[in-house]
Amino acid sequence: MSSEQEPGQAYPRRGASKLDLARDGDRLREDTIVAPGRHSSHSMERLLRAAINTWRGLRAAARSEEAFRQELIALVVAIPVAFLVTEEAWKRLALIAVVAFVLVVELLNTAIEKLADRVNLAVDPQIGRVKDMGSAAVGLALLIAGMAWLLALAERFGLI
Question: The domain containing residue 107 runs over which residues?
Answer without folding.
Answer: 66-160
